[in-house]
Amino acid sequence: MKTLFSGVQPSGIPTIGNYIGAYKQFVELQDQYDSYFCIVDQHAITVPQDRLKLRENTRKLAAIYLASGLDPEKITLFIQSEVSAHAKAAWMLQCISYIGELERMTQFKDKARKQNQRDGISVGLLTYPPLMAGDILLYNADVVPVGDDQTQHIEYTRNVAERFNAKYNDIFTLPQIKLPEVGGRIMSLNDPTKKMSKSDDNQKSFITLLDDPNQAAKKIRSAVTDSDTVIKYDKENKPGISNLLSIYSSLTDKKVSDLEQQYEGLSYGEFKKDLGEVVKEFLIEFQDKYNYYLNSDKLDEILDEGRDKASFKADKMIEKMERALGLGRKR
Ligand code: TYM
Q1: Which residue has a Cα nearest atom 7 of ligand 1?
Q2: Torsion angle of alpha carbons 251, 254, 257, 261, nearest 10°?
Q3: Which ranges in the chain are annotated with CATH 3.40.50.620?
Q4: Pocket flag, ligand 1, residue 10 (CB < 6 Å)
Q5: With bands split at pLDDT 50, 70 and 90, how would you rate the model's confidence at 227?
Q6: CB of 149 closer than 6 A to ligand 1?
Q7: What separation in Å is there between the alpha carbon of 330 and the centre of ligand 1?
Q8: Catalytic residue among 24, 60, 88, 111
Q9: Which CATH number among 3.30.1330.60, 3.30.70.100, 1.10.240.10, 1.10.3720.10 corresponds to the domain 213-291?
Q10: pLDDT at 193
C-alpha cells in the first residue's frame, strides 16, 4: 500500500477553505493509502502564538480531523512536536538547503511582510519548508493532498529530496502533490481575488468550521459578487460567483455545470440563500461530530497511539539520514 502524508497548522480554527482543499480529500483517500495526518504545531510557532491558545487549538484540531470523517482505526493522527524525528529531520534538511531557495517561497514573502510590521521575521519562518519537507520525507510519502497554496513547498520538498538522494544516499521517495478537483483555492468572501485565510483581519471574509451555522449562512448571503446576474463559472471575470460555485459543488458533490443549469434564470440572491443553507446544514452536522470527539476520552488514546506509530516509522528514517550524513557513531 502506498503512503500518504498531510498536515494542518493549529494556528487558529480551520476554515471551509481548509476543509475543501484538505480534509475532504483526506477522507476520500484514507482507504487507498497508509495515511499519516499531522497537527503541525512546530510550524505554527514560526509566528507568535499564545501558549494556552495553541494547546487548545491543537486539541480542537485533532477533533476537527476526526469530525471530517477520518477513521481512527485506519489512519495515523499525531502531533508533530510529540515525534522528535521531525525537528531532527528539519535540521538535517536545513543544512542542505540554500537561503536563496527558501527566500523565494511566496508563503515566506507574504508572511514576512506581515510579520515585519509587528514582531520582526523569525528564522523559523524562513526554515519552515525544510521542516515541512522532513514531515513528508520521514514517512516516504508517495502522495501529499493539499490546497494549491502548498504547491511551491511540495516542489521544494522534491528538490531537496533529490539533492539528498544524489549527494548522500538514495533513501527518499519523491512525493507527488494531490490537489482537489474543485476548490484547490477557496477565496475570501469579501475579496474573491484573495485566498480565504483564517488569519484574515476581516471576520466576514472567512467561515471557520466552528462558526455559528446561522452566522455562517449570513456571511454567504453577504459575500461579494459582481454586478452581472448570470450564475456561471468564470474565474477571471466573475471570481465571486465562481468561488461560491466551487464551495457549493464541493459541499454537495454536485458538478459545477449541473449547478449552473439548476440556477439558470435565478438571481444571485436566491443562489446565495440556498448556498447559505447548504453551509449551515454542513456545519451543524460537522459540529455534532466535532463535539463528540472533543469530549471523548478516545481523543487522547488516538493521539497517543498515533505518536507511537509515527515515531516508530520516523525514527527508522532518521537513522538512515544520520548514517548517510555520517552523524554519530557507526551503528
Ligand atoms: P495550512 O495549515 O495553512 O492549511 C492546511 C491545508 O488547507 C489548505 N488550504 C486551502 N485549500 C483551499 N482553499 C484555501 N483557501 C485554503 N487555505 C488553506 C492548505 O493548502 C493545506 O493543505 N504548510 C502547511 C502545513 C504542513 C503540511 C506539511 C502539509 C506542514 N507540513 C506536510 C502537507 C504536508 C500549511 O501551512 O497548511
Answers
A1: 18
A2: -110
A3: 3-183+297-325
A4: no
A5: confident
A6: yes
A7: 38
A8: 111
A9: 1.10.240.10
A10: 94
Q: Is the CB of 18 under 6 A from ligand 1?
A: yes
pTM equals: 0.96
Residue 206's pLDDT band (boundaries 50, 70, 90)? very high
Q: Is 198 annotated as belonging to a binding site?
A: yes
186 is in an annotated binding site: yes
What is the per-residue pLDDT across 135-180, written as a single tens digit (0 to 9) for each? 999 999 999 999 999 999 999 999 999 999 999 999 999 999 999 9
Is the pLDDT at 4 greater than 90, yes or no?
Answer: yes
Does residue 11 have a known ligand-binding role?
yes
**Does residue 218 carry a catalytic annotation?**
no
Query: How far is residue 117's CA from residue 14's CA, in Å, rounded to a whole number?
Result: 25
- Report the pLDDT value the prediction gives residue 162, as an integer from 0 to 100: 98
Letter string b/e over residues 203-219, b meaning 16 or more CB atoms within 10 A of that residue's CB: eebbbbbbbebeebbbb
Residues of the chain with CATH 1.10.240.10: 213-291
CB distance 219 to 190 below 8 Å: no
The enclosing H or E element of 109 equals helix 106-118
Specify the residue with its C-alpha closest to ligand 1, atom 5.
8
CA of 136 from ligand 1 middle (Å) equals 13
pLDDT digits (tens, 9 = 90+) for 208-226: 999 999 999 999 999 999 8
Q: Is 195 annotated as a binding residue?
A: yes
Q: Would the CB of 94 count as within 6 Å of ligand 1?
A: no
Give 221: exposed, middle or buried? Use CB within 10 Å, 0-12, 13-18, 19+.
middle
> Which CATH code, of 3.40.50.360, 3.40.190.10, 3.40.50.620, 3.40.50.300, is assigned to 3-183+297-325?
3.40.50.620
